[in-house]
Amino acid sequence: MTELGVLSQLLEIALALLLAPLLSAWVNQWRAWLQNKSAPGLLQQYRTLHKLFHKESVIAEHASRLFRSAPYIIFGCMALASAIVPTLSTDLPLSPAADAIALVGLFAVARVFISLAAMDVGTSFGTLAARREMLVGFLAEPALLMVLFSASLISKSTSLTTIVETLAQRDLAIYPSLALAGVAFSMVSLAENARVPVDNPTTHLELTMIHEALILEYSGRHLALLEWAASLKLFAYSCIGLALFFPWGVAEADAPLALLLAVPVLILKLAIGGALLALLETLSAKMRIFRVPEFLATAFLLAVIGMLVNILVGG
């Protein structure tokens, strides 16, 4: 473990915590612009978090310790997931833990706790949203694993650091397996982050929303942690996509100058990705909930086809 590696790890965590709300605000701003609406400022997310952290948390009378502890566990899982994805450097102390299966496991743990917390109080909307959340996770996690395995076949390893190092050193070309995996990953990312067409993050209709209904009973600092965790999840998925399909610009070990250059490169890639996400949401319409299994099954099928293409043609 080198001093530069520790610095890279701390810088990754700090950037994730700081840039995650900014990325969500950037996507919301572009979405408003594309719909000819007045866009909120980029600092609005920070103001909202500051306001929520200074408000009192109102907890239901029959809420258990699970309800109180879930926001902290979910936030920790999302922060750790953002920390193990090599976004700035591949020389990270957490590299041994940066495994594809471990990453999917972190997302699964957060999903289980937010679903249990939503059902803990016993409200009808929370229970309904928890069932929908588990349905989406049950279908999205295998598809995400297949996407990661498609990339791992190229590097012969499930370590995210090894995958990024291998893909970054290959010639710039379009690989059929990665192209199919990229489409599948985009579909999974939309579903996992409660974006259109699977969910609408701006809706206020309890019967149609998933993520917002899960956190209806939270307030104050608990709600702030959950909102911050949702931004971290979007940031983590964005960084996973960049690491798998656009790994150029990530610093390697013992490269302090490259580490400094990796920060503006990451911000630029996130800015472009956020604008494209807003464009995709604007061009899409929210689908009915019973169409979501078909949507995610298609993503799983594309990821599996990508793996088969890689095995058959080796690219």
Which outline best applies?
globular
Mean pLDDT across residues: 90
**What's the gyration radius in Å?**
19 Å
What fraction of the residues are assigned to beta strands by DSSP? under 5%
Helical content band: over 70%
Q: Helical stretch count? A: 11
Task: Report the count of strand segments.
Answer: 0
Main sheet makeup: none
Order of helices and strands: HHHHHHHHHHH
Question: Could you say which structural class the secondary elements and strand pairing correspond to?
Answer: mainly alpha
Q: Give the uncertain stretches in residue-range form.
A: none
> How far is it from the N-terminal to the C-terminal residue, by CA?
34 Å
Question: How would you characterize the overall build of this protein?
Answer:
The chain contains 11 helices and no strands. α1 packs parallel to α10 (256-283) and α7 runs antiparallel to α11. The radius of gyration is 19 Å and the shape is globular. The protein has helices at 3-34, 44-53, 65-84, 100-120, 124-155, 160-169, 176-192, 211-214, 220-245, 256-283, 292-313.
List the helices and strands and how they pair.
Layout lengths: L2 H32 L9 H10 L11 H20 L15 H21 L3 H32 L4 H10 L6 H17 L18 H4 L5 H26 L10 H28 L8 H22 L2
Helix pairs in contact: 1-3, 1-9, 1-10, 2-9, 3-4, 3-9, 4-5, 5-6, 5-7, 5-11, 7-9, 7-11, 9-10
Question: What is shown here, in short?
Answer:
The protein has 315 residues and is mostly helical.
Summary keywords:
globular, mainly alpha, 315 residues
